[in-house]
Amino acid sequence: MPACLPTLIESWFAARGWRARRHQIDMLAAAKRGEHALLVAPTGAGKTLAGFLPTLADLIDHPTDRLHTLYVSPLKALAVDVRRNLLTPIEEMGLPISVETRTGDTPSDRKARQRVRPPQILLTTPESLSLLLSYPDAALLFSDLRTVIVDEVHAFATQKRGDLLNLSMARLQAINPALRRVALSATVADVDAYRAWLAPDGDIDTVTPVLGEAGAAPNVAILIPEGRVPWSGHSGKYAAKQVMAEIEARQTTLVFCNTRGLAELIFQELWSVNDANLPIAIHHGSLSIEARRKVESAMAAGKLRALVATASLDLGVDWGNVDCVIQMGAPKGSSRLLQRIGRANHRLDMASEAILIPGNRFEYLEARAALDAVEAGERDADDFRPGSLDVLAQHVMGLACAGPFRAEELLEEVRSATPYSGLSAEAFDHVLHFIEGGGYALRAYDRFKRLTQDTDGRWRVSHPRFIQQHRLNAGIIVDQPALAVRFANGRKLGTVEEGFAAQLRPGDSFFFSGMALEVVRMDTSDLTVRATSKQARIPSWGGTRMAMSTRLADRVRHFLAEPGEWHRFPADVREWLEMQKLRSALPRPGQLLIETFPHEGRHYLVCYSFEGWNAHQSLGMLLTRRMESQGLMPLGFVSNDYALAVYGVKPVTDPHSLFSADILDHEFVDWVEQSSLLKRAFRDVAVISGLIERQHPGKRKTGRQVTFSTDLIYDVLRKYQPDHLLLKAAWADARARMTDVGRLGDLIDRAATTMLHVTLDRVSPLAVPVLILIGREHVAQTAAEDALLMEAEALVAEAMRAD
């Protein structure tokens, strides 16, 4: 056992028959040198212990009753789990170290006590840390803080929560310049980019990279029931019986789905074929916290044979009895797949078992690409971008709540946070004056005048009520307007979004929390339900669909262009690609294939760009607008992650004119400004920046009230101050988050030089998966489903004819 471990920790390792791993010792060594550190190690490698070992060692050698270490997690549940796991070694070693959590669920009396008598180790979230910094005693509380540990850093560093955390770390560093920063992750592609994000002032050389030992290679298979891969679909529900057989053959299985709606669907499909009546459950972010905790406890106790889950369980699950992970539908990224595979076994020296269920033939190629990427150790690239100004406005207001500040000093501190290193003095001034009075167009309203500049140049909060307002409303996650789903006795099951609830009437039924529920009544905040045996529908949630990562898309394009790879594919997938090569063309990497052909009285244009559903939805709107202006009489479009099909009355003979670069300057701007995209983005940034409050003392605004307020302000600013800070922030959000405009721009750029246009006399094999989607969006009746199935079979027969 290396000598740098304190004797007490050495003895604890020995008593368990363990040895300290190399990366754990490296983390101790970095701490002794006073260096920041980024640890990248596979799941099951003891990352959490590696992060805390320097803290335990220091507290053994230098006991203190002050706050020593902050652990920041993206999830409340993760902080709770880490506390439980951290307490075990502390108790077994008999260390006088207190560990507590502080999240939105922590009782107010404990929160107040923690500021006066903090534990030595505090586990929290970015939002709770930001709120702690808004108190006048924050400088005293954090004055002796030695270490900040950021867990699962890949999950939020590139997002607004990462912006908020980085700003908070800049403030902590200003309070205690000797503070050490540590970040932990299992799935980081660009280690240097994360080192720069973690470092004060972005100084990458101050962050020591620590790479963990490689674990046993995972055992991953692609399940193809009865040897056939479906032409269409994305759920994998066709494999329900085979998935149930895998569950029956194993101790505990995690079944991952990419969306909450899909999780509800797959749970129902599995339950319908659960002939052995095995205990299975469902877990996703819209279920009530009580329901999630109950399921988590049952899983931890080994009482469940399977759990159907979404990304709500991507992080922090360390249930040792999970012996298989099943991914329904394509994983969309190698990093996400690796993260999910790591939920099985949770041991470095034992191969994790995983099974992928592709939803269609393109998804088979994607699943194969993901397996190859995992085997090659390739991770998905992360898109770091400049920090958001609405987040900066919230942070500045929070610091003002703690006490007056000078603008030039705060600007220097803010620039030390890497996402804001390029912030101009002019942009920072705009943020200050926005908080001061809401901006030029809103300056007449007292409720927006949150900051005042004193005669000595310092900024302070205008009135104590704004401090209370900030603490009630601070946070980066903006929930979509939602209604609580409750039984008549008041028991809450979870939430559904207002948009879905608006489609329901008393007597309607839907699946939720694994049950069929009938609507009894509805008011502005609650949807009252009762259990039913009636036929039910699956709820829809509005969240952005996950797009296939660019690196997986590149691998799929490579498969299409390399027939030498096809021997690895099932016979029907090979036949599909061979017929496409015979009848049309297969795009080379970097090439944009466009096919045009007639079918049943319509003319089709199919674009194979592999840029994801979000980008294709945006492109479909833009192309139909441009086709309209060219007199081509478009009728509609459908898309999946791989292709976009636009159809109309007249044929497209010159696709180049549709894909010209100015489409993003003209049609895109017009479309976004006329759609609800920009208003939705504005609502989010208005809430995050503190312009609109979600809660008043004693009550919370409904989603409709928030939307009404933000829509009014949006219209005023569009008319009187179109260059307002929040309108710019909303545009940035709309472009980046809601429309995948970056990938859309890449697609348009590629079209200019690499377009391959093939004119056909009928539908091609490659077009079948996307064309089958036409007419399927709102199908509910079995007869209609049967008719569509017959249509699909006819379409396949036409496409796969060799003549």
From TrEMBL:
InterPro entries membership: ATP-dep_Helicase, DEAD/DEAH_box_helicase_dom, DEXH_lig_assoc, Helicase_ATP-bd, Helicase_C-like, Lhr-like, Lhr-like_DEAD/DEAH_assoc, Lhr_WH_dom
Domain Helicase C-terminal: 239-382
Domain Helicase ATP-binding per the UniProt entry, residue ranges: 28-198
Cited Gene3D superfamilies: P-loop containing nucleotide triphosphate hydrolases
SMART domains: DEXDc, HELICc
Keywords carried by this UniProt record: ATP-binding, DNA damage, DNA repair, DNA-binding, Helicase, Hydrolase, Isomerase, Ligase, Nucleotide-binding
Alphabetical list of SUPFAM superfamilies matching this protein: P-loop containing nucleoside triphosphate hydrolases
Listed GO MF terms: ligase activity
UniProt record similarity statement: Belongs to the Lhr helicase family. Lhr-Core subfamily.
Matching PANTHER family: ATP-DEPENDENT HELICASE LHR-RELATED-RELATED, LARGE ATP-DEPENDENT HELICASE-RELATED PROTEIN
Record's protein name: Ligase-associated DNA damage response DEXH box helicase
The organism of origin for this protein: Sphingobium cyanobacteriorum
